[in-house]
Amino acid sequence: MKKHFFLATLMVGQLASVSHGQCLSPAQAKVAKPASAAPKQVKPILPAIRDKWAVLIGVGRYEDTDIGLLKYANSNVLKVAKVFVDPDVGRFPSNHVLVVTQDKANKASINQAVCEDWLYKKALPNDLIVFYICMRGTPSDSMDDWLLLGADSTLANKNQTAISLMGMLGDLRKRTQSKNLVCILDTQIAGDKNARSSNQILKKIAESTQTTILTADENLLQSQNSANGASSSFVEYLTEGMKAGGGLLPLDTVAGFISESMAKEAPAESQKPALLVSAANAELVKVPLGIPIKNTSSPLANVRTGHSINKLDATNPELAKDARRMLETPDPNNAAGKIQQLLTKEQQALQDDDGDDQDGPEVDFGPYMKAMKKAIQAKWASPKGFDQKKVVTAFSIQRDGRITEAEVVESSGSADIDKTAMQALKDASPLAPLPKGAPKRVQIRYKFDYQVK
Length: 453
Prior knowledge:
There is one protein chain. By secondary structure, this protein is α/β, with parallel strands linked by helices. It has two domains: 2-16 and 360-452, Fusion Protein Consisting Of Minor Coat Protein, Glycine Rich Linker, Tola, And A His Tag, Chain: A, Domain 2; 52-347, 3-Layer(aba) Sandwich (Rossmann fold). It has helices at residues 26-32, 73-85, 107-122, 158-161, 165-176, 198-209, 233-244, 251-265, 308-315, 317-327, 335-354, 366-379, 415-428, and strands at 2-11, 52-58, 97-101, 128-134, 136-139, 146-148, 163-164, 180-185, 188-189, 211-215, 274-276, 388-398, 403-410, 441-452. The strands form three sheets. A six-stranded mixed sheet has the order 3-2-4-8-10-11, sandwiched between helices. The chain is globular, with a radius of gyration of 23 Å.
């Protein structure tokens, strides 16, 4: 007897909104076009961020004494977390920031809490996901991966006890379908202090996983202490750069400020931060980490910068000037001004595109979901001859019922079975139009389960 099990997760309510990004609505396209009738130069479009998530991991003490201590790991994590959740700087909702430190930061808990129980279930394709990682690490034996050493890891058995950075970021990219991944890597090498191939490894990871990586040191060999002795220099300047622009300076500008500031306070041969950009999403470095999300209550014009911009005058007058210009009257010819104008247009486009529709919480999707399952099930030609197989897909349903952006996010292990799931989605499209009051697009995770008993 064949048994079919269907599990669909509808991502609406607090987790649903109008999803922009690669597909522009006519309203958005109209906003993005210049008024001139002359031939238009195509400009890169910044990723539109629907929501934001941050994971901050810190390990300073290890059970394996051969790994060594990492000073300020916990205090660095707490300092970054404070800036991220600041409503006038990082603008991450406090319940969207997960902090994992010390004993809890072992391989099993990081994989389970960070990925399986959190990001995989909550983050969506148009979300920004930021990792801040402050722990020791080491190259893999094959020199093609960077291994993060959790609290219970051992150097002698690193391939089994450490966490693969390539694997973690790659799986996150696949499971969430988000291209907006930023990894701030504040790690320091354990073991071979003369290993200088780390930069090439990280470049490969950034490109393979389509992740933007900001490293505290290009070879992960150094970790300078800040002048105030309460954190590392890298974290001191990272948080200062974010606060100087009220969180609205783009990532590459903040990275440049960190590098310049650290070069001034130490010899040229010491710590050198590096920004590694994935060619698949090069525009992400122009997005500020403090970009307001749709439901934010702080409009761009009312962002407060605090006292740090004044302190910046003494250390980096040019960055202070850019920050003031960005937060006051933007100069259209200034890069920071252009970014603010584009962000403002994106925010307005989000509002305009919603029209009179209400957000997801006011819509009863129950009847629609039942009809959707029935329609997809009717089109699924289930496989034969297998004991049990599972395929997890992700797709969007447009307002008119069309199924778009369908992808397999968890393969059954059989290409033929995966194809049956994708064909079912293709054949079931279009579905009925979304119910009245729904956003212009909802995103679905849908599981095909097949058992023979």
